[in-house]
Structure formats: structure tokens, C-alpha cells
Prior knowledge:
The complex is a heterodimer of chains A (112) and B (115). Chain A is an all-beta fold and 112 residues long. Chain A contains no helices and eleven strands. In chain B, the strands form two sheets. In chain B, strands 2, 4, 5, 6, 9, 10 and 11 form a seven-stranded mixed beta sheet that branches. Chain B is globular. Classes of the chains: A mainly beta (112), B mainly beta (115).
Amino acid sequence: xxxxxxxxxxxxxxxxxxxxxxxxxxxxxxxxxxxxxxxxxxxxxxxxxxxxxxxxxxxxxxxxxxxxxxxxxxxxxxxxxxxxxxxxxxxxxxxxxxxxxxxxxxxxxxxx
Amino acid sequence: xxxxxxxxxxxxxxxxxxxxxxxxxxxxxxxxxxxxxxxxxxxxxxxxxxxxxxxxxxxxxxxxxxxxxxxxxxxxxxxxxxxxxxxxxxxxxxxxxxxxxxxxxxxxxxxxxxx
Lengths: 112, 115
């Protein structure tokens, strides 16, 4: 069974700092990896989707990398802002399936 | 496009009651799924469907029923509510491709409390 781990569980940084969120998974036979953002009491918003053939994907101040062989992905947030405060979740499907396995998330607080 | 919509947003049930959580998508996606989110446990898959008339069980299917009569709708039924089903429920969809998987989109969630 696929297991997804996100470290740290919580992170607090001052505004303007660059930061890295980590995601690791046990089964490397994945199609892709997706990063989501979840605000308190809200649904999940897709941030980035990295296909298994890619090594990274960028959207604005966000950059996600994928290393299938080591079972790791990182989400890099540049010049953090208070509006970035949320819980960040990574999720992977297994090859041949569409079911997502989620990590428990990293709760990010950016202090003004 | 409205994307993925869910109703109701909040619901309180008594133990033993039944209800249906509604989910609809207007993106013509083949794949739809239901997850529950519990503190400290992340999101777990309940049931999913790869197209109209086809459903299958996920990781935690007990106590739940689904059907898929149209591409757009994928309702989740609680047969006899139990306090252990207190959770936040999310519906999701994505379009199947030749590769097999695409970006998944989530609804806003239904917060259910069972007393």
C-alpha cells in the first residue's frame, strides 16, 4: 500500500522567507504527483501537477520537483506572503489507478 | 464552468438516520470519487467511479453506497449514520486520458456531524 509522508507537520516563517515543503512516498510506480492547498474549512485547490516524466513544474512563486527513484517531492515557495498561510497537501496515484493517496499535510503560517 | 459542486455544505444527523450527499461536475469528467478527511488521518478514498454505471470501493467503503447513473452526478449515500462517520466529505473528478490520469479537481466539501 502506498504511504505518503509530509514533513514538517507545521511550519511558521516570517514574511519574505523562501521555504521548502517535503513529501515522500513509498511506492515509486506513480503516474504523477499533485500538490494542493487547503484553507481552513475549505476544499482543496490544485497548485501543481508533475507528470512522472518531468522533474519539476513551476507556477508563479511555486516550484515543485519530483524524484521518483528516491520517492521524494519538494514544493518550493519563494518570497512567502501571509496569504500563503494554509495547509499544503501532496498526493500520488499508483500507476494504472486514479485513486489518490494523500499525505497528512504541512500547515504553513507566514507571519507578517 | 462551476467545476465540482457539493450539497449540502453542513449537515447534522442522528445515529441511524440516512442521507445522501450530492456531487455534480460540469467538466464532462469520466472519473469521480469520494474522500473523507479526518484530523490526523488525511484524506481517504471511500468510493470511486470510472464512468456512468461503473463504481468501485476505495479504502474505507463500509457504511456508504454510491451509484453513477449519469456522467455529471455521483451521490454518496449513508445508509445508517454512525458517530464514526462524522467527517468532512469531498467529492473530486478528473478526465481520464490515454495515460490514465490527469489533474484532479475537488468540491468545497460537506461537513457532517452524526450525534
